[in-house]
Records
---
Amino acid sequence: MSETITSKHVSFLEHKGKYKGLLGWILSTDHKRVGLLYLYTMLVFFSIAAILGLLMKIQLIAPGYTIMGPQTYNSMFTVHGIIMIFIIVVPGLPAVFGNFFLPIMIGAKDVAFPKLNLASWWIYIIGILVVLSSQFVGGWPDTGWTFYAPYSFRTPTNVLPALFGAFILGFSSILTGINFVVTIHRMRAPGMTWFRMPLFPWTLYATAWIQILATPVIGITLLLTVMERVLGVGVFDPTLGGDPILYQHLFWIYSHPAVYIMILPGMGAISEILPVFSRKRIYGYKAIVLSSLAIAFVGYFVWGHHMFTSGMSGRALYAFSFLTFIVAIPSAIKVFNWVATMHKGSLNFQTPFYWAVSFIFVFMIGGFSGLTLGSLATNVHVHDTHFVVAHFHFIVFGGTGYSFMAALHYWYPKMFGRMYDRGWANTGWAVFFGGFLTLYLPMFGLGMQGMPRRYYDYLPEFHTGNIISSLGAILMIVGAIIVIVNLVRSARYGEKTSEKNPWGGKTLEWETDTPPTLENWEDLPTVEERPYEYK
Amino acid sequence: MSEEKQHISSYTSHILVLGALLVLTAASVAVTSLEMGKYNTLVAMLIAGTKAGIVLTWFMHLKFDNKIFAIFTVAVIVLFLLVLYVTFFDYSYR
Ligand code: HEM
Ligand SMILES: [Cu+2]
C-alpha cells in the first residue's frame, strides 16, 4: 500500500465527523463505531445479568432460604434469561463483529444501509429501556424468558414491558439481517465470488436469513400475548377457547431458529481463527459453507423438541425427535472440519486459539447433551431439570460466549490499535474455563438425579452437587473479571500497534490499516484466490 | 437498481388489482356463511393467499423486477408452508 499523505490515514477512532465527543459515536453511521456501540452496551448488560446469575448460585449453595426467597429467585432467573438471550446472545456476534468486520472482510466501505444500521442500534437501546422499565414499574416479571401461556397473562407481576421490549428488540434484529443480506449480495469487492468469501461472512449470511424470517414470528407471538393480557383476547387462554400449546409452538418456531442465530456466527468466527493459528488452509471450506446453510434450513423444523412433555400428538413427537437428530449432523461436520484443520498444522498457542479450542470442547458436550434431550424417552426424564440448564449453558455460553471471546481477542488489535496483556488474557481464560466446567458439569448430574430447574430450594440429596457448582460460579466470575478488566484497561493503556497483520491472517481485514480508516480502503481491494491459502 | 429499467404500471393495472382485492374480500366474507367445519379456515387462508399473491405480483412489481426477488419470495413461502405442515403433525393427530 502506498504511504500517501498521513492525513488520509486517520483511523476511525480519531476521525472527526460532524459531531464531537459522545455524539460523534451515538450518531455515527460508521459500521465500525456502530459495532463498538453494541459491544459497550453488551458489556454493561452482560455484567448486570452475570451478577444476577451469581446471586442465584449463591442462593443455591444450601437448601432453603440463603439470600433470597422464592419470588425474588423467580424474578432473577427471568431477568437474567431475558437480558442474556434477547440483549446479549441474539444480537451477539453479528451486531459487534458482523458490523465491524463484514464490510472489511468482503472489501466494502460500509454496510449497504449505514443509517438503517445506526437505527438498529437505537431501536435496540429503546427495546432495552422498555424491558428495563419493568424493573421499576410494578414487580419484576417472573415468567422465565419463555413467557409461557397461560401464566404470562395471569401473573400479577409486570410482564407487559418485558414482552413489549422483546418485541422491539426483534426489529433491531430484523433490520440488521436485512442490512447484511443486501451488503453481501451487492457490495463484495471485485473478484470476491461467493466461494471466495471468508467463512465468517458466510455464517452471517445464513444467520441474517434466520433473523429476517423467524423474528417476525416471535414479534407476533409476544404481541398476541400483550393483547391477551390487556384486552382478554382468547388466543392462548383455554378458558376463552384458546390453546396454550399454540403459544409454545409459536414461541419455539422462533426460538429454536434463534439458537442458530446465536451459534452460527460463533462457528464462523471459530472457522476464521483456527486456520490462522494452525497455519493451514481450512479443511473442507465448502462443507462448512453448506453445513451452515443446512443448519439454518433444518433448524426451522425442530422446534417441537422443547415441547415433548407438553401434550403434543404422538406423531409430532416422533417427527420432531427425528428432525432433531438430523440437525446435529451439520454441526458435527463442522467439528470434524475444525479438528482436521488443526491436524498436522503448526499450532500457534495464543489467547484466541485457547478460546477457540475450548469452544470446540464445550460445544461438543453441549451438542451431545442436546441429543440426549432430543430422544423422546430420556427427555421425559430430564426435561425441565438442571440437565437442560447445563445443556444450554454449555452450548450458548460455551458456544456463543467462548466464540465471542475468541473473536474479541483475535480482532482486538485491529479494532483498537492496541494489544492486550497476553499473560493476563491467558490466565483469565484458564480460570474462566476451570470455573465454567466446575459450575456447569455438576448440573448434568443434578438433572439426572431429578433436580428441577427454576426453584429457589431443593432436597438435601442435591446439596453436594450444588456446593461444587456454586463454588465454580465464583471461580468463573473471577476469571471473567480478569478477562474483561484486561480488555477494558488495554483499550486505553495497552501497547500501541499499527501492525496490519499481527497474527498472519489471510483474509481482507488484515490488509487494511490498524485500526481501519473511516472508509476502510483507500482503493478497493481485488480478490484473486480463496481465503486461507497457506502454502 | 439504478442501472435497470424501471417498470411503470398503468392506472388500469392498479384498478384491476383493486377490483380483484375487493371481490376477494367480499368472497371471504361470503364464505363465512357456509358450514364447512375445519375447511372454513383453509378456504379463508386460500383467499387471503390469493390476495397477497396479487399484491406481490402486480402491485409490488415482482413480475417485472429482477428474477432473484421472485425466487426469494417463493422460497420464503415454501419455507412457511413447510413450517405449517410440520405444525399440523400435532394438530391433525391430537
Ligand atoms: C446439537 C444440536 C442440538 C440439539 C440436538 C438440541 C436439543 C435440545 C433439546 C431437545 C432441548 C429441550 C430440552 C427440554 O426442555 O426438555 C434443548 C433446549 C435448549 N437448547 Fe438445545 N440442542 C442443540 C443445540 C443447541 C444450540 C446450538 C443452542 C444455542 C446456541 C441451544 C440452545 C438451547 C436452549 C437455550 C435450550 C433451553 C430452552 C429453555 O427451555 O429455556 N441448543 N436443546
Ligand atoms: Cu431447540
---
Amino acid sequence: MRALVWHGTTDIRCDSVPDPEIEHPRDAIIKVTSCAICGSDLHLYDHFMPGMKSGDIMGHESMGEVVEVGAEAKGKLKVGDRVVIPFTIICGECDQCKRGNFSVCERTNRNGHIAAKAFGHATAGLFGYTHLTGGYPGGQAEYLRVPFADATHIKVPDGIPDEKLLFLSDIFPTGWQAAVQCDIQPTDTVAIWGAGPVGQMAIRSAILLGARQVVVIDRIPERLAMAEAGGAITINFDEESVVERLNELTNGKGPEKCIDAVGMEAHAAGTVDAMYDRVKQAAMMETDRPHVLREMAYVCRPAGTLSVPGVYGGLLDKIPFGAIMNKGLTIRTGQTHVNRWTDDLLRRIEEGQIDPSFVITHTVGLEEGPEMYKIFRDKQDGCVKVVLKP
Amino acid sequence: MRYETERTRRRGHADTATDTLARGLGIFSIALGIAEVVAPRALARALGMKGQEGLITGYGLREIATGIGILASKDPTPWIWGRVAGDGLDLATLATALERDNPNKRNVGIAMAAVAGVTALDVYCAQTLSRESPHPLPPLQDYSDRTGFPRGVEQARGAASDFEVPRDFRTPEALRPYTQPDLPQNPMPSM
Ligand SMILES: NC(=O)c1ccc[n+]([C@@H]2O[C@H](COP(=O)([O-])OP(=O)(O)OC[C@H]3O[C@@H](n4cnc5c(N)ncnc54)[C@H](O)[C@@H]3O)[C@@H](O)[C@H]2O)c1
Ligand SMILES: [Zn+2]
Ligand SMILES: [Zn+2]
C-alpha cells in the first residue's frame, strides 16, 4: 500500500510499504477513506519532537471502513462498519480509561518504559506519533492497523460525508476539551492563542459553551478571518500588543480563561511596542518557543485558568511560575481524551449545531501529501487544514 | 515574516528584518536621488566631475524611481536588484573620476567606499528576498463565510449549555467567585 513515511527532518515521502496485518486478536484493519494532517504532525516534520525513526508511517486523524477484525474485537466491530479512529489508542479497561482519562491509558503504550523515563510515568499509545508513545504506524496510508480496536474506534452512521466526521478523530474533541478545561461561565472572556485548526475548533466550542466573548490571537490574515467568521474578536500579534488589547477588552482585568492552541513552535511577535517590551522584561521573556505560555501566564486574570492543548515535548525555559503561583492560576492540559467527548460531539454534528468541515481548505490525494506538509507548515495558499484521500 | 499584512505587504517571508531593510534602502534611494537632483553642481564640484551635472541629475532621477518602486510595490525584490545594478553604474562612473589629475580624488575614494558599503547591503537584501519568495504567492483566500455553524453564529452562542462540565474539569469552587465577581449567587468564600 502507499503511505506517508517519515525519513528525517522535513523529509516525508509517499512510499510503498507492506500492508498492515492483524497482529493481535484485539486488532482490526481499516481501509482509510479520509485522513488529515495535524499541527502535531508538524512538530514531527520539523523534528522538534524527539523519538521518530526513519520509516515510521505518519498520521493520527483517519477514518474509514473496517475490512478485517481480530477474534477478540469481533463483539464490538464487524467488517463493513464505518469508523473514525481516535488518535489515542485505548484499552477501555484500565484505571485511567475507566475514569475517562483515555490519553493516559495505562496499557496501550508498548514503549511505556521509555515514556516513563521521560515523563515519570507512561502515557497512552498514539498513532503515528514517535516511539515514546508506542511507535504505532499511522493512518496517512491506504490501510491502518488499529490495536485495541474493540475500544479504539468511534462508530459513525452512513449518510454523513467524511468531511463532517473526520475531525472527531482529534481536532474537534481537542478544541472542545480545551474549552471544557476552561469550565466556561457566561461572564467569561476566553482568549485563544493560535487560529490553526485546533484554535478554530476551540473558538467554536467556546461559543457553543456560551462564553461572553472569545478573543483569538494569530497573525495569519486568512486564519483570523476564519476565526472572525466563527464569532471571535481577533488580535494580529504582528501588529498589535496582545497584552494591551486583551486588557482593553476586559476592562483592564485580563481574560478569565486562556487557551494555548499553538504549542512548542510559537513565534514571538515581529513588531513590538513599548508596552509589550515592558511585559517581556517584567516576565523575563526571551524570544523563545514557549512564548505563548509566558504571555498567557502574564495576562490571565488572577484565579483564572490556563488550558493547554498545544503540544510540548520536553523542558521549557523561563516560565513565569511566580505569576502563575501568586495569581492562583489553574493549569489544565493533556493530550485529548478523545472518546470521552465523541458521543456527545457526534450528536451535536448530527443535530446541526456545528459542522467541523468548515476548516478544510485543501483536499488532495496521498501522493501530494509531502508537498502539502510544507504548504501547511508555511501557511501558504491560505492553508488551514489538509484532508488526504488515499 | 511569512504572511501578508498591511505592514509587510508581502507573503512568503521568513522575517520582518529583511522587509525593514528593504524599506530602509527605498528611503535611502529617494533621499540620495533628491540630493543628486537638487544639487548636481555641488556634487560635481566635490567629486571633481565638472561637466557631468546632467549625468548626476539623471542618476538622481533613477534613484528616486527605484526608491518609489521599492516602497510602493507588493514585492520589492526586482527593485532591490535594480539598486544593485545602479550601484554598479555608480561605481563605474566614479571610477572614471579617479584620474591622477583630479584634485578631489580623496572625495571620490570616500564616495566609492560609501557606495561599496551600500552595494553590499543591497546584494544581501536582494539575495535574502529572492530566497524567501522564489514564486509569486497567490492572493488571500476569503474565509469570511466559514462560520462552522449551520444555523449561524448568533444561534450557536450558548447552544451547548446543556453540556455538563465533568467534575474533574471544573474550576475549584474557591476560585469561582473571583472569576465572576458580579454573579450574586456566588457567595464570598469564607476565610
Ligand atoms: N492536546 C492534543 O491532544 C492536541 C491535539 C491536536 C493538536 N494539538 C496541538 O495543538 C497545537 C495547534 O495545532 P494546529 O493543528 O492548530 O497547528 P497549526 O500549526 O496549524 O496552528 C498553530 C497556529 O498558531 C499560530 N501562532 C504561532 N505563534 C503564535 C503566537 N505567538 N501567538 C499566537 N498564535 C501563534 C500560528 O500562526 C498558527 O496559525 C499544536 O501544538 C498541536 O500539536 C494538540
Ligand atoms: Zn493531531
Ligand atoms: Zn486503558
